[in-house]
Amino acid sequence: MAAFSPLTDPSIGPSLRSRGPFADPDYTPEFGSDSISESKILVIGAGGLGCEILKNLVLSGFRDIHVIDMDTIDVSNLNRQFLFRKEDVGRSKAIAASEFVMRRIRRGVRITPYFGKIQDKPKEYYRGFTLVICGLDSVEARRWINATLVDLAAEGDIVPMVDGGTEGFRGQTRVIIPTISSCYECSLDLLPTKRTFPVCTIANTPRLPEHCIEWAHQLLWPKNFPQRKFDADLEQHVDWIYDQALFRANEFGIEGVTRSLTLGVVKNIVPAIASTNAIIAASCCNEAFKFVTSCNPVLDNYMMYSGDQSVYSYSFCLEKKPDCPVCGSLAQDLTVPRFFTLQELLDLVAEKPKFQLKAPSVATSDRNLYLRFPEQLETLTRPNLELKLIDLISESEELLITDRSLPLSLKLRVRFTGDSERPKDSGNLSLIR
Amino acid sequence: MALTSITFHELHHKMLALKKKREQQQLNGGNSNTSARVISGAQIRVQKDVTELELPPTIELQFDNPNDLLHFTVTIKPADGLYKGGVFPFSCEISEDYPIKPPKFLCIPKIYHPNIDLEGNVCLNILREDWKPILSLTSILLGLQILFLEPNPNDPLNKEAATELARDRHKFSTLVKRSMLGGYVGEVRYDQVLRR
Q: Do the Cβ atoms of B23 and B106 come closer than 8 Å?
């Protein structure tokens, strides 16, 4: 079998050989082809969108693909997650998907699966990718990967993120170029919050079938089983909620409580439609292809697709938020002497004209070093002020500083220099910069 | 248009330069960065919210673990109104999805209150249907305090208490006093919550 070449491939060759009217002036077909072959792509999520994305990527000539998913295959996935078969139920999505694609496509494609959470991997892991494509169902995971990529961009390594999402007949594609375009956190306030009902309505005046289900789920379960946490994946738990909700619905003359509605409400299930996933995954992979090859300009930077009332699509640019907590202030390097205490660091930062802090609180990603408020935490963390910084944090560990006078937070990467012993007459700290 | 085709070109050159730099770094023995965890958006928001709380002396916070800002106890000691003299601790749990999801509050003692049921669930609009990410922890804590200053008979969770409040405020006040002493109201015996 002849070696695969993107340039001569009948499906992607034409789009590489003819440069688009808005292509980079330096664009050459060979550059586009080489970029595809040399790129390393990370796919986050191997579910409904992930299966489509993996298939599209290998058929577009990408050869080094990594995929992460923490989930295992459920029988209800099989109708649309077409890389899985009945005998795969219970296996890791990432591993099963990789095996399937590698079996089918033999032209030197390497797919590396990881069965676990994105948070398991250190920041360094993400540095090596050309681009990340997300097919996720969780806001939390999107926020995490977004913050990680912004962090890498602050160190000079820009790894763009293409984020896809669907809900029934609707979907969206978004291109995030960390620190250059708006990030996921910039537009967090635009997210719709989960549909919730007032507790008093649930408790006293139910009118909808959902009110009855939420009553059984939110109020009755904790009352009857205070020691047992409700688990929506356990059939007998859902059955119990369903029975109780049905009883209450009859009591109030409400129709429409079914077992599938019950499952939908307690699991907060959004309907997944295979063809919407296909549309959005295709759009994500086209953006990845254009970005990596630079054969045409990429989406700037948000596309919505709505197929539930006829068809409507629109793209627009989400703007950067100046006071975004993630990309509004990037981590800055600060070098201090090894003998510095936490207090001295805070004094140094406070007097720098560009920061002007009044009452800073400081933490690492997992420990609070000094918190100005509430009183109890201030008392508990105050002894740290006298400790040497080098005993509190490791070299280059990121510090988060918040302050009432800062609309944003401040991130510092501290590096150490010089002796760990304080020189005998070093009263004048202003000499150290 | 923020990312026009011109900035797209610039971006592309930037990426190429970065690629060269990265190759150079690999030749020089890799990057010296440690693999420390990334500070999350939720963490930044919670730290700002907690350390910049503006609370009256009637609201106190107690943390069990100073490295865990996501779990704590809030105690409300109303200085006025029908619940004056009482001490009302609530457990608070902030999720990793904050501020997309509101924090969860449960009243720890069993109290007689129109908007709090016997399991400690609280009916406060900004805790559920009216929560917006733009609201902060301060707004919720002040909201909780208002429940004690102005119990609301129109959003009942304890129906008997709400009916009583709407019908006869004076009698309701007597029942509140009795319940706060640890006495019975109707069939239910409430917890003693008076400040000692």
A: no
